[in-house]
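Students often ask why we bother encoding 3D structure as a string. The short answer is that it lets us treat folding as translation between two languages. Here is a chain of 337 residues written in the first language.
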Amino acid sequence: MNPAVSSSAARPLPSSHGRAPAAWDLAPLPPSLDRGAAEAFCRLVAERHYENFSVVTRLVPARLRQDFANVYAFCRWSDDLADESDDPAAGLAALEAWRRGLHDCLGGRPGHPLYVALDATIRRHHLDGGPFLDLLDAFTEDLTFDRERVVVRYPDRESLLAYCRRSADPVGRIVLGLEGCTDPAALRQSDAICSGLQLVNFWQDLRRDRLAGRVYVPQSDLRRHGVSADDLAADRASPGVRSLVAAGVEWVGECFAAGAALERTGPPSLRPAIALFRSGGLAIAAAIERSGCDTLASRPTVSSITKAWLVARAVIAMALGRRSAAAPGRAMPVGVR
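And here it is in the second language, the structure alphabet:
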């Protein structure tokens, strides 16, 4: 077998810290660089790693579903390389090997089954390689902080948003790129939604992140609310932590508001999925508020009923959108081919 195909060359040994199974544990890696086998592998990783993947992909055209799986599998594998090792140095080495593989892929020489599938998506849609590299930069940044035992990682909100621009925003840009959307306004709105999703996840997981040695709350926000990093490891939120989380949720709302127009002006085929992700983020923010902004005592989640309603609303919007798209004289938004 081609040694470049080996999964062990680009990942550390899995740890036992209770996370969901890593991408490489969900399906057998194809023993060759056959594209059909590579794409089947990506579908399995996506479907088994993310329980809502089938729902999301049914909200986009069938012609894009394999591409969604290829992109998701890349993101999941890359994230797992960063998080599935108890040794940051080993994780950094694995990410560096994976980065070299991405450069080979972008140069038309994919040497790993996942990159064979991703290469087809990149070429089919003429995707920019920058967002893929940005994601790896964010994961490398996480592990570098881990290696240096830096707990509170960002001094202010702008520096945290700069991290979000590498860790979350590239995903939205890649998805828009699947429909050839390059409109600057659409990209900014996508960035706002993706940053909002990343931020609400930080507030949702304050205690879990702190126990893992990571605090994504800006130092300036901690000082403003009189909160220390150790306060985030408590079993229950203090008044200061509740105030901190309330301010964070308000910030999340501002991000989602800034991206709201994309549900109406983005590529028609992607609008239902965009609306579902944005609505889901808002639902998590609402769950945090219902908890009294105490995300330490328990992790706020969205109920099954709420999830079902969000999906139903997205399906209805998709049906209406298709009916509208069939009407004569419909104009395509700027930046969508």
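Translate back mentally: The first helix runs from residue 35 to 49. Keep this in mind for the problem set.
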